[in-house]
Design brief:
Main location: periplasm
Radius of gyration: 23 Å
Subunit structure: The Tol-Pal system is composed of five core proteins: the inner membrane proteins TolA, TolQ and TolR, the periplasmic protein TolB and the outer membrane protein Pal. They form a network linking the inner and outer membranes and the peptidoglycan layer.
GO biological process, one term: protein import
Number of helices: 4
Function: Part of the Tol-Pal system, which plays a role in outer membrane invagination during cell division and is important for maintaining outer membrane integrity.
Distance between the termini: 32 Å
Strand content: 35-45%
GO cellular component, one term: periplasmic space
Structural class: mainly beta
CATH superfamily of the largest domain: TolB, C-terminal domain
Length: 428
Amino acid sequence: MKSGLRLLSIPALALALMAGVPPVPAQAQLRVEVSGVGSNQIPIAIAGFSNEDLSPQQISQIIRDDLARSGYFRLIDAGTVLSETAPVNFEEWKRKGAEALVVGSVQKLADGRFDVRYKLFDTTKAAMLSGFALPTLPTSTRVSAHKIADDVYEKLIGVRGAFATRIAYVTKSGGEYRLVVADSDGYNEVPALRSREPIISPAWTLDGSKVAYVSFEMKKPVVWVQNLLTGERRVVANFKGSNSAPAWSPDGSRLAIALSRDGLTQIYLINADGSGLQKLTSSNAIDTEPQFSADGQYVYFLSDRSGGPQIYRVSVNGGEAKRVTFNGSYNITPRISPDGKTLAYISRREGKFQLYALDLASGQETRLSDTTKDESPSFSPNGRYIMYATETGRQATLAVVSVDGKVRQKLSVQAADIREPTWGPYLK
């Protein structure tokens, strides 16, 4: 291992990832801007949970924060504490304007864990919609709150929530680069890797256990895969020239990568252990930034074979590549939604690099960002949001936008640039 590289101690990283607690103080701050939702928001009241002061985190406040930043809910001030066993006066809550009500409690168990209980009510129908109990370690109370918010989101919106997921990104502060894993709201930062050399292009496996990335610690771009629970890492691609842009197949068995080993950069497939290299494209242009389709049958990629950078698609079995983007003369960094229906990418128009989404069936294109230096889009696992890197006031930050462009969030890290985001999968 090069002297310029430092791994977080394996036990600390493993415990933090499993429990959701940071070995270093959390520094992320989420600033939310919600626009364009109006009457589409569901009015909901989240009462204070009974005895939640016993837990390290205030469960009800985390749930409020999650639902507020989703853009789909309008929070009604509950102004009270209600356990899940207390009687509910539905008429009173309807008068307050709440169509849904969340109540719950926290109990400390003899073994040191907490029993977090919650119920969700439809006040209009005077009916319980959902509820469950979560045995929770003291280090996992924040995760339990996210899981409750996920359940509320799913029961009321009809789509699985993504609050209890993780994100990965790269920060630079001074001369140090860090590959960081954090909760979806930016809390509980865990540095998985530290280096004096650049780290780029992190990509999650669909089971959330590993991240592939490109490190320059060997004084050239090399593709690595790291197990996030054990800290074990290995080189997957270190061929002549540049090794870059790793992307996992849906089953996690192989990666699509970009290699310049034979001259011009082309797309290759390689097994997750670094064996079985297979060349996928052979053009007289630069082909890079591969991304598997949701079903694993195709690879989307960037190529300048038409005279300018555009996005193409080719079968994993090879053959003729078909052009996908036609609007604008400069379209890069393809990302496919989990349902395979939407392509996100960065387009340069009138000197601005901005995030766009393309409905692959209709060809309808939508500009999603109002910033001008966007890069590295990544879909949430439920397909409702896209995270991307951008700049605000000359500082590199992360932003999140809903696929309809109506909800926006910004995530910044104190005293550090933050780039290369990738949204992790649902964890089992």
